[in-house]
Amino acid sequence: MKDSTFITRVILKNYKSIAACDVQLQPLTFLVGRNGAGKSNFLDALRFVADALDSSLEHAIRDRGGINDVRRRSREHPNHFSIRLEFVLPDGSSGHYAFRIGTRSPGGYEVQKEQCKLYPDIYFQIEKGTVTHTSVQVAPPAVSDRLYLVNASGLPEFRPVYDAFSRMGFYNLNPDKIRDPQTPDHGNILNRNGSNITSIFAQLSPNAKQDIEEYLSIIVPGVSGVEVEKFGDKEMLVFRQDVAGDKHPWHFLANNMSDGTLRVLGILVALFQGNHDTHKHVSLVGIEEPEIALHPGAVAVLLDGLRDAAHRTQVIVTTHSPELLDDKHLDVNSILAVEAHDGDTVIAPVDEASKSVVQDRLFTAGELLRSNQLQPDPAALSTAKEKQLSLPDFDKPKPGKAESRGKHK
């Protein structure tokens, strides 16, 4: 598989149920675990970054119920949470972006630290609203209640980082929203629930539409295509479907289609949006339980679609489906096992015994999931507390000419 990986490593501390997490991501990554283990919280941490940059930090925190619902609740009463993401941009440059958000009474918050670094010598570091280190000669001001990368996106050095993190899409698709007539939307990223799918589908390149229609016709036999039609000031999806005894396909409005068909279309649009247009490229797509309402016999086709999309866009999915993991060629290293351990979420690669039997083709990952044998590496369980205390939040920028020239006191 072509390496489309944007985020290579995720380090989280005190985010919702996740006390500590340090994992590597693949072009296509599967998160597996029981209900309530914390899979959605991992995806939400990445979505938090996109929301805070694309909208505002205030919106991202308020949308999740406030700072006290974002930081982890435990007997230790942590007063902050932190996120660190290591990444590779489309041009091959690499770096990391990290921030720590702390609580302030009553119910307030502040950005205690924030750092972005493009290796080897482009960087900024912020501490409580002050630019303490930067490689640029003239840096915009910082404030303690907003992420500085938004301001820094006006600088050509940091704009690619901002664009990549703000153009991540995360999906929990709602068939009713896809079914309803929709107001035209000038955005170019599919909404989380699919409520602007008509506008996004209309913008797709012919190649992307062809990919979507081919997969849809295999997953939903008889459906041969999709169109967008206007009804007054609204738009609606129209499906072309073959009908026995008729030479030409019939047209059915979206409100006549099943939830499963609409969810599949939403998933495919999420996966292939912007894949053929560098100006609309979506750097990462996260989808929760794409197998819902899908016939088990069609899951193998869905896996093909996930793999196809992951050649151009990084994909992360949460799943309970053994069928999705039944392919004997599935790379076991693409699976992260999620488990609730003493009230905290632990996320880690699967244990070595499971890796061995999958790699030796004795069992598929799906068969291990059916028997509840797909577990996190025990080393991650035994060191969860140590990781919480020792995960690095930030790297100290190395002093140099650029730093000395741009340092703000």
Written account of the structure:
The protein has helices at 39-54, 57-62, 67-70, 148-152, 159-166, 175-179, 197-203, 206-219, 259-272, 299-309, 352-359, 365-370, 378-382, 384-390, 401-406, and strands at residues 7-15, 18-24, 28-32, 80-88, 94-104, 108-118, 122-127, 130-134, 168-171, 223-231, 234-241, 250-253, 284-288, 314-319, 335-341, 344-349. It has 409 residues and is of the alpha+beta class. The strands form 3 sheets. Strands 2-1-4-5-6-7-8 form a 7-stranded antiparallel beta sheet. A 6-stranded mixed beta sheet has the order 9-13-14-3-15-16, with helices on both faces. Helix 8 (206-219) runs antiparallel to helix 9. The longest helix is centred in the first third of the chain and has 16 residues, at 39-54. Mean pLDDT is 89; it is low at 399-409.
Q: Would you tell me the structural class of the helices and strands?
A: alpha+beta
Helix count? Answer: 15
Biggest sheet architecture: 7 strands, antiparallel
Rounded to an integer, what's the Rg over CA atoms?
22 Å
Q: What separation lies between the terminal Cα atoms?
A: 47 Å
Spatial strand arrangement across the major sheet: 2-1-4-5-6-7-8
The average pLDDT value, as a whole number, equals 89
- Strand residue content: 25-35%
Helix coverage percent of residues?
A: 25-40%
Overall morphology: globular
Which consecutive residue ranges, at least 5 long each, have pLDDT under 50? 399-409
Tally the beta strands.
16
